[in-house]
Design goal:
668 residues; mainly alpha; 31 helices; globular
Length: 668
């Protein structure tokens, strides 16, 4: 029997006999270069530990901090004489104050000579139910009415209405600017290019950093809270509105133009109606961002549920914090469900029968009459104006939360403390020591080197600028402590994000089960995440890290799942046909092909974690978060708090630029 031997091609012969390929040179990869930087850093750290660390005691101030204090004093002394304040900033503050006061007089605060607001609890519940029904459906209306009634049962009616008043005021002002700007960005490529960097910057900054500079201009109080909320909440509406306008098919616009429509008619009759659902989702995101910011604005004396949570956290009163946090969650769920239902109502109405549409208008008219009656009753009669009862439900919730906290601390403290100490001593403390005990220039050089390797030379230049400015803030050591907590939390976030994201991306059933929970978790404001972990781990920086992980994990999981799902089925089938097992398909095919999604997940995880770690300054996290909080409460530390806010911005910009550049390089 003759065996045919395939004659190798000439190129193959060359390849087989090439001495260059028999001893190939290993390509230097980016992970290898990052590893080399870390090794050099560790070696120099062992030699130079404790030198030139730029440590600053809690009560010490730098020249920059004193200059900020002097600036604050100067602004306060000249607020009513400087033309810029007299005719611009003070007028803005007056308009916002009047708006907030008007809404509060309607639903939350005593109005004029009345000991109660103009519309009592029965009227507010009726309005909430009617509006939810009008823009959504009857199920959402029942949810809204039950949620608002529960605020009263908790004994938190006025606090809830104060939070709602600030949220509505901020959303109204935000949308007044955001929708037109979003339409403009959707219609003009040039304007979209101009505004995008500003939106990126505004969404990169953690919520904390908006507060300090605004109090310098607008003082502490509801006006600063609303203005900070507007700045934080407007970018989602601008982005999503622009996306909705740009998503309208070109053929539809061309058809309208060919029929003689003017640009204004095309906008009103074609673009906005077809982008309605997307615009409403932008409104939804603005409302959620506003609610999150309004609760944090309690730090600058904004009234409402956030103030109750903050005071309870500062006194370690877990039960009261849990009760108020539950009210915040319920309000977030109600507002989210209402706006989400309104975005789908048009499509549902289009698919409904004509008989239903015929009856809907008379029913809405009858409902409107009923709401007017409820408003009249709540304005006239005490029983309909002041919520009945003594808030015993809230008392029971508070007592139950305190009992659970006590039981956990008595019975699970060994487990929780062991877990906390293992992670703190095994990972957090060594990494924090590496950052805070290394010479500042060594840390800066390492960060710049990593920025160049991971994101390119532009990223390295940005990192170098941020490092230089961080040194200038005078809070370098605190910034490195915050950096350590942020990096450790982000690593944990990505471990969970990859594990559950791959699971969701590979299984449609798992995706259907987990995604609603993840969506609900993203609705909750960051404040409420601190409460349960305060009960478990006490007031420590570890509490802030765990809360940050839980806060950031949903977005990392969803982005990773979408990236894994985007890998072509044909590629997975080819790997399966080649004999790859499940583990090999995940590690050799799906994750490598989803690298850009993983990098984006890391980017978003870092930003979310940084935001939450800083908020953790309220529960013992220290570092930059504590500096900001202390700056609000102690006048002599205002300058240091303002510098800490600037340092948070610099960390956020540095993280964002490096990870965004890395995402672009992996997708190229």
């Amino acid at each position: 029997m003759t065996v045919a031997v395939e004659k190798p091609e000439p190129a193959q012969q060359v390849a087989d006999t090439s001495p260059e390929l028999k001893n190939p040179r290993r390509k230097v990869t980016r992970p290898m270069m990052v590893g080399a930087i870390l090794v050099v850093w560790l070696v120099l750290f062992a030699v130079l530990r404790g030198k030139q660390t730029l440590t600053l005691a809690a009560a010490d101030l730098t020249g920059l901090h004193r200059w900020f204090n002097d600036l604050n004093d100067s602004v306060g002394a000249n607020r009513n004489s400087n033309p810029l304040f007299l005719y611009f900033f003070n007028e803005i503050r007056l308009v916002i104050d009047n708006l907030v006061t008007f809404v509060q007089d309607l639903i939350s605060q005593p109005s004029g000579d009345r000991p109660l607001p103009q519309i009592g609890w029965l009227g507010v519940v009726g309005i909430a139910g009617f509006v939810s029904w009008a823009v959504g459906n009857w199920r959402v209306a029942l949810l809204a009415m039950a949620g608002f009634a529960f605020f009263g049962l908790q004994g938190l009616w006025q606090e809830s209405m104060d939070t709602l008043a600030l949220t509505l005021s901020a959303v109204l002002v935000a949308l007044l600017f955001a929708i037109p700007l979003g339409v403009w960005a959707g219609l003009s490529d040039r304007f979209n290019r101009i505004i995008t960097p500003f939106l990126d910057f505004m969404q990169t900054m953690p919520t904390f950093v908006y507060l300090a500079p605004l109090t310098l201009i607008f003082l502490i109080g509801p006006a600063s809270a609303v203005i900070a909320t507007v700045i934080y909440a407007a970018p989602p509406a601008i982005r999503i509105t622009a996306h909705g306008i740009r998503s309208v098919p070109e053929t539809t616009v061309e058809a309208a133009d060919s029929m003689g429509s003017t640009r204004w008619q095309s906008l009103l009759k074609v673009l906005l109606p077809m982008a309605k659902r997307t615009v409403v989702m932008g409104v939804n995101q603005t409302i959620m961002a506003a609610l999150a910011m309004v609760t944090i604005a309690a730090l600058i004396d904004a009234p409402g549920l956030g103030k109750t949570v903050m005071q309870a956290l500062q006194t370690l009163d877990v039960g009261t914090a849990f009760n108020a946090g539950l009210a915040i969650v319920i309000m977030a769920i109600v507002l989210d469900r209402v706006t989400t239902a309104s975005s789908t109502r048009t499509e549902q109405a289009r698919n409904s029968t004509g008989r239903f549409l015929t009856w809907r208008r008379p029913l809405l008219g009858a409902g409107a009459v009923g709401v007017v009656v409820l408003i009249y009753l709540s304005h006239t009669y005490l029983w309909a104006a002041q919520f009945p009862g003594d808030g015993s439900t809230g008392t029971h919730i508070t007592n139950a939360a305190n009992s659970v906290t006590t039981w956990v601390q008595d019975n699970l403290s060994g487990v929780t403390n062991a877990f906390r100490n293992a992670l703190t001593n095994g990972l957090l403390n060594p990494f924090q020591s590496l950052l805070t005990d290394s010479p500042w220039w060594l840390v800066g050089a390492a960060l710049v080197g990593i920025g160049v390797v991971v994101g390119g030379w532009r990223s390295g230049v940005t990192t170098a600028i941020c490092v230089g400015l961080l040194v200038g803030t005078g809070v370098w050591s605190d910034a490195m402590t915050t950096l350590a907590s942020t990096v450790v939390a982000t690593v944990i976030v990505m471990l969970f994000g990859i594990a559950f994201g791959v699971w969701m991306g590979r299984s449609a059933m798992v995706d259907r089960l987990l995604r609603p929970t993840l969506d609900a978790a993203q609705v909750m404001p960051p404040f409420v995440y601190l409460v349960p972990f305060l009960a478990l781990f006490g007031a420590t920086r570890f509490t802030a890290i765990v809360a940050a992980v839980v806060y950031a994990v949903p977005v990392a999981i969803k982005i990773t799942a979408d990236g894994v799902r985007a890998v072509p089925e044909t590629t997975v089938e080819a790997a399966t046909a080649a004999g790859c097992n499940t583990w090999q398909i995940i590690t050799k095919v799906q994750l490598p092909m989803a690298r850009s999604a993983l990098t984006l997940a890391t980017n978003q995880g870092l930003i979310y974690v940084l935001s939450m770690v800083v908020v953790g300054g309220l529960v013992g996290a220290g570092a930059l978060g504590y500096d900001v909080v202390a700056g609000f409460s102690q006048g002599e530390l205002y300058g240091k708090g303002l510098a800490a806010g600037l340092a948070i911005v610099l960390l956020g910009v540095m993280f964002d630029r490096i990870t965004q550049a890395a995402a672009r390089r992996t997708s190229a």
